[in-house]
Design goal:
This protein is an alpha/beta fold. The chain is built from seven helices and eight strands. It has an eight-stranded mixed beta sheet.
């Protein structure tokens, strides 16, 4: 399966297009819910392992329901095909590769519409660094790198956002320094449909 490339930088507009119109959104690794106000969904389930992020979340609207749980337990929380869309925005790279692949499988089983993933391309060596300074260092460490083929082999559509991560990102500077070439990002999505 092929993938496309773009030099565009507005990933959030593309994410909105993939998420909006969903009855329910499971935002895995929602963090502080910084972008959830942009999603037009009837219900947003904000799943986050680090409780302080949920306690200080930026979106406190009543249709956003915070859930403090490890993503690897989502099959215990949700039955198959019970959530319209599952979003992993800057999340999958925090898991070892085998766990990340298992997480994708579980998300595909839970979603009845689609699974959407956004992640750096390749390994982005982020150490235990919490940009928000809220004690989540161990959860912020990157443990895997992802390539388009990791998703196309699972029948995902993939767009490579070329040179997306650069010195405008404090995590990039901390990981690579100020003289490193920009790093691509991947947006992958899979239509799950009813089964």
């Amino acid at each position: 399966m092929e993938y496309t490339r773009t030099s565009a930088r507005n990933v959030h507009a593309t994410l909105r297009n993939l998420v909006n119109g969903s009855d329910s959104l499971l935002d895995v690794g929602s963090g502080l819910c910084l972008n959830s106000h942009e999603y037009n969904c009837k219900v947003i389930l904000a799943l986050e392992v680090h409780r302080p992020y949920l306690e200080k979340r930026k979106n406190t609207q009543p249709h956003l329901i915070p859930i403090n749980e490890d993503a690897m337990n989502i099959q215990k929380l949700f039955l198959p095909k019970t959530v319209s869309t599952v979003l992993l925005n800057d999340v999958i790279e925090h898991f070892p590769k085998d766990d990340g692949l298992h997480l994708l499988q579980m998300c595909e089983e839970i979603a009845n519409k689609r699974v959407v993933v956004f992640t750096p391309r390749g390994f982005f060596p982020q150490k235990a660094y919490d940009h928000f300074d809220m004690g989540g260092e161990s959860y912020q460490e990157h443990r895997s790198g992802w390539e388009p083929e990791d998703f196309t082999s699972r029948n995902y559509n993939v767009t490579v956002f070329e040179n997306y991560h650069d010195t405008r990102n404090s995590s990039f500077v901390k990981a690579f320094g100020t003289n490193h070439a920009p790093v691509d990002a991947l947006l992958a999505w899979k239509e799950c449909g009813q089964s």
